[in-house]
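Researcher: Structure prediction, please.
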Amino acid sequence: MQGTTVAFPKYDFYSTDELLKAYSAGPVRLAEALCGLTDEDIRARASGPQKWSIQEIIFHLTDSEVLGAFQVRQACAEPGTMLPIYNPDIWTRELAHQREDAGARGVSLTLFALLRRSTEPLFVRAQEADWVRCGGKHPQFGLLTLRNLLELYADHSELHIEEILNLRQIVGKPLQVHPLLPVRLFEKMETERESSTVEFDLLQRGPDELSFPDPPGGK
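Model: Predicted structure follows.
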C-alpha cells in the first residue's frame, strides 16, 4: 500500500555484539549449510513448484546484500534520506537465478561474503550515538536507524540459512547448524502483519514464506 508505514518491530532480544557476530558469520555459516549438496539438490524445488530452490535463495541473499551494503553506507553518509528498496520475487524471476550455472553461483557466494566483509567495519566503528543518529527513511517502516539495519541483515542471513537447512531435510541430507539468533525478526513482522490491514511491499522472504518483498531490501 503506497504511502503507508508501519513501525519496525522491536528486536532487542540481542545485544549489538551478538548481532554483529551473526552478521559477520553469515557467509561462513551459509557455506556450511551448503556443504555436501549436489547441483541437483541445490536446484530442487523441494518445497513445491512455486517455492524457491536453494539456488534461488543463494542469489537472493546476494541481491539483498547488494542493496543492504548501499543502504548502510547511505545511512551513515546521508542520514535521513530515502533508502532504496526492491522486490525480491521479481528480481529472482526476471534475473533468472534458477538458470545460472555453478560458476555463477560461486561468484554470487563470493560477492555475498565480500559485501559483508566490506560493510562490517561501518558497524564496528559506529559510536553509541551513531546507532540512532544514522539511518534513513524506509517506504514501509518510516525511519530506520543503523541499529535497525544491522538487525535486519543479521537476521536475514540466519533466516535463509534456516530455510536451507529445512530444504536439506526434505532432500534427505539433514545437517545441524546451531542458530545464532533463534528469535526471528520476521516472525515478529508476520505477527504484526496479521494484525494489520497494511500490505508490505517489501521484506525479505522467499515466495515459500511470507511474500514480503525485500528490504533494506528486503530484510
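Model: Confidence is low (pLDDT under 50) at residues 191-219.
Researcher: Thanks, that helps.
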